[in-house]
Amino acid sequence: MNAASHILDVREIPCSDKHRQIFQRWNETAPGDFFILWNRSNPIPLLRYFETALAGSFTWEYLENEPESCRIKISKLQATAAVTDFPTCRGH
User: Fold this and answer.
1) Do residues 22 and 46 lie in contact, with contact meaning Cβ atoms separated by under 8 Å?
2) Topology of domain 3-76, per CATH?
3) Of the candidates 1, 39, 63, 90, which lies 20 to 30 Å from 70 by C-alpha distance?
4) Residue 18 neighbours by CB under 8 Å, 6+ apart
5) Which pLDDT tens digit goes with each residue over 59-87?
């Protein structure tokens, strides 16, 4: 996988579809691999969901955290059950 294919740019995706795409990418990510989430702002509610539902199976590393752009490297440390029930996006 090349570097560009690791990027999931959700900046222009409607909020109603954003989390579905993020968790689809999470489900497709192999243990030991990662993707870079590129959002307009820091998705703290999403981080809280990961901490609760996927504790111990990921790392969350900020590559950029500016007022208009946030890039986060999300690494999958171990296999997990597919995430199909995820929080609703709240405009981040």
Assistant:
1) yes
2) Translation Initiation Factor IF3 (3.30.110)
3) 1
4) 10, 89
5) 999 999 999 999 999 999 999 999 998 88
| The amino acid at 62 | Y
Residue 79's CB is within 10 A of a number of other CB atoms, namely: 9
One DSSP character per residue, 33-82 reads -EEEEEESS--HHHHHHHHHHSTTSEEEEEEEEETTEEEEEEEE-S--PP
Tokens coding 10 = 């959700």
Contacts 24+ apart (CB under 8 A), 52-58: 53/83, 53/86, 54/26, 54/80, 54/83
Tokens of 81: 């059950």
Q: Let me know: does 61 contact 72? Beta carbons within 8 Å.
A: yes
